[in-house]
Amino acid sequence: xxxxxxxxxxxxxxxxxxxxxxxxxxxxxxxxxxxxxxxxxxxxxxxxxxxxxxxxxxxxxxxxxxxxxxxxxxxxxxxxxxxxxx
Length: 86
Fold this sequence. Notes:
Elements: E1 7-19, E2 30-37, E3 40-46, H1 49-53, E4 60-70, E5 73-83
Parallel strand pairs: 3-5
Antiparallel strand pairs: 1-2, 1-4, 2-3, 4-5
């Protein structure tokens, strides 16, 4: 399957977390934002700290991005995220 188009996912932020490597000398971080909407839960991933810090738990957001595959598991890579007015 080839998913090249941009997609939008909207929902309420349920949880956020930071994934760090076990090596102490690595500066790499991946940020995960868990969004629930339309009865589904989506795990949005980014390496951009500013995008991650721009949202908080309980906020309604719209994320724009695309899918990539890691070990044949689709992941949603966030390119842009915005807070929606309630």
